[in-house]
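DATA CLASS: polypeptide
GOAL: derive structure tokens

***
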Amino acid sequence: MPDARVEVAVSDAPASTHGRDEIAILLAPHPGGSARPVSRSASGGELSRVMLAIEVVIAATDPVPTFVFDEVDAGIGGAAAIEVGRRLGRLARSAQVIAVTHLAQVAAFATNHLSVVKSNDGTVTSSSVRRLEGADREAEMARLLSGLTDSDAALTHARELLDTARGAA
């Protein structure tokens, strides 16, 4: 969201235990658009990215021990996904970050990459979690990129993303 504009509107409110101000975060996601309350106008993906940006800024002054993001990358790809991954990586310098993603561009910036797999034997549904490292991580990243488990081009791209993420650290 390179051209987005965020505003904070403060207005008077009836006195309560929460104070006398009403605060609204306004977002104009595109040039020329008017800023509207995020809570009513932002898509799920826009809302997630605005929250990520706010949390990155706040974490520098008021650290929270753990952040959980469930598909903060919904509806994006390419350069935007790399930037979300980079911002999550930056946030992870001062807090624990748990991010659920299906994008290799985001996963590349993880310090620990876990694969969660759900299975069903016809009677019981269970989930397993496995830490991915080395060739296993590259293979999973390639699968996320291409949907294929044996693509040389996807493996090359996965390695490139991992190198990019390491260079950003």
